[in-house]
Amino acid sequence: MIDLRSDTVTKPTAEMRQAAFEAVVGDDVYNEDPTLIELEDEAAKILGKEAAMFVPSGTQGNQIAVLTHCQSGQEIILEAESHIYYYEGAAISAFAGVQPRTIIGTNGVMDPHTVKNAVRDVSDIHVPETGLICLENTHNRAGGTIVPLENMKEIYSIAHNQQIPVHLDGARLFNAAIATGKDVKEYAMYTDSVQFCLSKGLGAPVGSIIGGTKTFIKKARKWRKRLGGGLRQAGIIAAPGLVALRTMVNRLAEDHQNAKLLASGLEAVKGITIENNVDTNIVLVNTKEAGISSIEFIEMLKKNGILAVSFGPNTVRFTTHFDVSKGQIKDAIHKVNRLI
Ligand code: TLP
C-alpha cells in the first residue's frame, strides 16, 4: 500500500526504537524522568520559549492551551477550518466552556482587520469576552499552506494591544519553517503558546510539545494532570521524540518535493484539479470534473494500492511523509492516470 492518508502514519525509525529501548526513565508525575526533561528543555530552546511540556497528542496540547488561557464563558477567535474548531470534537466547548468565533480565512490565513473587528467590546454587558486567538501553521484543511510571518505578527500585535493571548496550533510548524527557510523561533515569537507534533512529519510514534512562559507551563501541567495526561516512565516515548527533533527536521524538504511532484503529476490527469497551493506536504485533489465523489475516488484508489482521505464531497487529501518514497509517488501518479 502507498499510504498517503496522513503523515501521522509514519513508523518510528530504527534509531528511535533503539533510543526508546535505552532510555533512562523515572516517574514524570514527580518530575523525575531525565529523558522527558531533556526533551522538554530542548524543545523550549528550539521554540525560543521559557518552558515546554510533553503531551500525549496534538489535540490534548491544543485543549490544554485553551484551558490554560481561558475561562468558561469566554469566546475564542479561530479560523473556520482550523483543526481546533473542525476536528477536536467541540472539546473547547465541552471542556473549557468557551464558544468559538470563526473567521473564514484565505488559504487558512485570517485577515487581521477581520480579527480586530471580531474582538469583543467588553464594556457591553451583552457580549462575551475574547479570551484567546488561535492560529494554525501550516494550515491543514487549507492544504498544508503556510501562514506568513507578517500576518502572524499583525494578529499578535492586535491581540497584545488588547491583552488577548495568542495560541499557535503548529502541529506542522517545522514544515512551515523548512519550506520558508526560517527558524521555528521566528514563528513562535508571535505567540504566547505553541503546540507542535512530534508524531507527524517528524516521525516519532507519539507526542506533542506545548511551549510558553514558565507560568503558563506550570498552569498547563495541572490541566494535563486533570485530563489524565500525566505520564509515568514517559522517557520511553520521549526518547524517540528527541531523535525526531535531532534527525528528522531537515528531511521534511523531501516530503515537500514529493508533494509538488504528486501535484504536478495529478494535475496532468484529465478530470482532476489541484485545489491548494502546495506549500508543504499536502495535496488536495478535486474530482468533480471526473464526475466522481471523493468517497468513490478513495475506494478506486484503495483497490489499486493507494490510501488517501476525504476532505469534502469532491476533495481528497494526499499527504507525503517519511515512509513514502519518490518512486512510490511516481507509481501513484501512474496508477491514477490509468484509473481516471
Ligand atoms: N491532524 C490529523 C487529523 O486529526 C485530521 C491529520 O491526519 O492531519 N492540529 C493539526 C493542524 C492537525 O493536523 C492535527 C492532526 C492535530 C492538531 C491533532 O494532533 P493529534 O492527532 O496528535 O491529536
How would you explain this protein's 3D organization?
By secondary structure, this protein is of the alpha/beta class. Helix 1 (14-22) packs antiparallel against helix 11 and helix 12 runs parallel beside helix 14. It has a seven-stranded mixed β-sheet, with helices on both faces. It has helices at residues 14-22, 34-47, 58-69, 83-86, 91-96, 112-118, 149-161, 173-180, 184-188, 214-226, 235-247, 252-267, 294-303, 326-339, and strands at 2-3, 51-55, 75-79, 99-103, 130-136, 166-169, 193-197, 208-212, 273-274, 282-286, 306-307, 309-312, 315-319. It has 14 helices and 13 strands. Strand 5 (130-136), helix 7 (149-161) and strand 6 form a beta-alpha-beta unit. The protein is globular. Residues 6, 8, 57-59, 62, 83, 87, 136, 140, 169, 171, 197, 199, 208 line the site of ligand TLP.
What's the layout of helices and strands?
Blueprint: E1 2-3, H1 14-22, H2 34-47, E2 51-55, H3 58-69, E3 75-79, H4 83-86, H5 91-96, E4 99-103, H6 112-118, E5 130-136, H7 149-161, E6 166-169, H8 173-180, H9 184-188, E7 193-197, E8 208-212, H10 214-226, H11 235-247, H12 252-267, E9 273-274, E10 282-286, H13 294-303, E11 306-307, E12 309-312, E13 315-319, H14 326-339
Parallel strand pairs: 1-11, 3-4, 3-5, 5-6, 6-7
Antiparallel strand pairs: 2-8, 7-8, 9-10, 10-13, 12-13
The structure holds ligand TLP.
